[in-house]
Amino acid sequence: MAEEFKRLSRDLVQKGAIIDYYQDTVQVPNGNVVKWDFIGHKGAAAVVPVREDGRLLMVRQYRNALDRYTLEVPAGGLNTADEPTETAAARELEEETGYRCKNLELLISIRTTVAFCNEKIDIYVARNLEKGQQHLDEDEFINVEAYTVEELMEKIYDCTIQDAKTICAIMAYAHKYLPK
Asked: Could you tell me the pTM of the whole model?
């Protein structure tokens, strides 16, 4: 089916720190030529840190796009498009929570907004956590909090947690690791 669509051009409109905004000109199957927005993203990694007691470490931080604090799994963008996501997940785990983990296990990969963006987030599970030190960026102010999976599921269903990567991470973790 992709051969029925033909991209005629991709023009950079704005280069940003996190994303690049393009306008694509595409010929669709009926021959019409249309303009579509495209957001280019290097990708990201997230991690579900599991304490020995089974509680999951979450980060509470202010998100400008929503003008409020959110509760999320630790995550961050790749430094380069070819950086291994496992490397980024390990870095974000330590930077945001102050914990390290020697072995990360890939849990799930998600595409956040397929209609206009190519962002892919690989989500890992971290067990056998070792205490290190937080290394926050100068614009990051993060509180680390621990929750049971049941508490987090409740926060998903009462709409307290709305972040897609966090919902996917918690739901996939619960499905794969909790007794049925």
From this structure: 0.93
